[in-house]
Amino acid sequence: MSKHSAINRFGRSGNPAFTKNFNGFIDDLPISDRMTLDGAVNKTGILLATCFGGAFIGWNIPQLMLPAMIIGFILAMITIFRSPSNAGSTAPLYALSQGIFLGAITMFFEQSYPGIGIQAIGLTFGILASLLLCYKTGLIKPTENFRLMIFSATFGILILYLVNFVMSFFFGSSIGFIHSNGLFGIGFSLFVVGIAALNLVLDFDFIEEGAEKGMPKYMEWYGAFSLMVTLVWLYLEILRLLAKIRR
Amino acid sequence: MNTIIFGSIALISLYAFFKLSKLKASSRQLKRNDRINRFDHQPKENIIEGDSEEIKDSDDEK
């Protein structure tokens, strides 16, 4: 019962001019044009396969590492800020370029630490599956506070990496503990891996909610893309962590 | 040995991921009041909230 007597007496306005919102737009979509869980999962599979294909190229032609990383970054920015509705065309290109980058960087790590690549792949997918199980069963419940916490931590890590990049590029020094293999360095890497992993939960929830509310079909690609971005980050952080431990 | 262990972890996890993802999350997850509300915009009310005075019939007659 509303505390406003006018609402109780007359009800909320049925005038479409007042009630028209995003949901009204979604309601107009035919069923076939709506996002589904199956669709998002299939698209994630396509992106993963594309990424593995790219990794094969990167492993054999490691000179492509830097261009692939830059192209991947630009494609990610375009997809996120310019045209989420075109994720169907930008996301596979992103997966391919990041695959090339990951393949090349894994090859370099493998030269110093043999067997590190398969360990990182196993751990990344292991975390992916176990967190999905935790999410589906309701063991981990993403709330607004949870999202705020993860966003803040992710943004903090981004700023730290940016400062480290600027310091090393312009002044030739860097934030020591990020790269150190001491207790603090490994602890920092574990923290970053944890935050990257918890970002997966937000991605699962995004896909689940989008499918539940019948968002437009292109959101399947966007959901799969966001999952890929997190997986790429998680893989890189696990690779760094394992390298620190084995150093 | 390293390849066999971590390779099988990766394959089993990928299989579990593709099987699990197609299932709907449990009601414990979906029927919560504190879920993140990304897409659901609340309709704007056409009643302006705030202090208001009741208009009496006697005011119209003035």
End-to-end C-alpha gap of chain A: 64 Å
| SSE string of chain B, helices as H and strands as E | HHH
- Which descriptor suits the 3D outline of chain A? globular
Helix content of chain B: 40-55%
The chain pair forming the largest interface, with residue counts per chain, is: A-B, 53 and 39 residues
Largest sheet of chain B: none
Q: Tell me how many strands of chain A there are.
A: 0
- Name the beta content range of chain B: under 5%
Oligomer: heterodimer
Features:
heterodimer, A: 247 residues, mainly alpha, 11 helices, 80% helix, globular, disordered N terminus, B: 62 residues, 3 helices
Helices, strands, pairings?
The complex is a heterodimer of chains A (247) and B (62).
Chain A: H1 5-10, H2 16-19, H3 22-27, H4 37-60, H5 65-82, H6 87-112, H7 116-137, H8 144-171, H9 176-179, H10 183-212, H11 218-246
Helix pairs in contact in A: 4-6, 4-11, 5-6, 6-11, 7-10, 7-11, 8-10, 10-11
Chain B: H1 2-21, H2 27-30, H3 57-61
Structure, described:
- The complex is a heterodimer of chains A (247) and B (62).
- Chain A is built from eleven helices and no strands.
- By secondary structure, chain A is mainly α.
- Chain A has one domain.
- Chain A is globular, with a radius of gyration of 21 Å.
- By secondary structure, chain B is mainly alpha-helical.
- Chain B is rod-shaped and about 95 Å long.
- The model of chain B has no long low-confidence stretch (mean pLDDT 78).
- Classes of the chains: A mainly alpha (247), B mainly alpha (62).
- Chains A and B meet through α3, α4, α7, α8 and α10 of A and α1 and α2 of B.
